[in-house]
């Protein structure tokens, strides 16, 4: 059986809600990572068989198949497909597993796999940041705190 290897690990810097990456599109953030891997290893973009990205809850600007626009934004040829996996908190890990399985089965030789997530897209603690005590009101009585 063919072996699969993780050749590199690249990521963007970590930001905070409303911080330096607030206006950055998730596809552009993922594209930066893809371009870095291609440049760092002097890869022929034509040799990439697929881009598989995990993304928890595809909403807002990361809705749909975020892997495809990320691949195109990274300058990969139109012939390189992209697919997005949503397995909640394990999405990026699942993307890496699917990539490894494709290589091990012989259906692919080179896949860019990982994850993209822009937490500013999520309404997590939105009530709390809007001033609701403890982040919410009582769902049965409507009372705060």
Automatic annotation (TrEMBL):
<dbReference type="GO" id="GO:0016747">
    <property type="term" value="F:acyltransferase activity, transferring groups other than amino-acyl groups"/>
</dbReference>
<dbReference type="InterPro" id="IPR020616">
    <property type="entry name" value="Thiolase_N"/>
</dbReference>
<dbReference type="InterPro" id="IPR016039">
    <property type="entry name" value="Thiolase-like"/>
</dbReference>
<dbReference type="Pfam" id="PF00108">
    <property type="entry name" value="Thiolase_N"/>
</dbReference>
<protein>
    <recommendedName>
        <fullName>Thiolase N-terminal domain-containing protein</fullName>
    </recommendedName>
</protein>
<feature type="domain" description="Thiolase N-terminal">
    <location>
        <begin position="5"/>
        <end position="127"/>
    </location>
</feature>
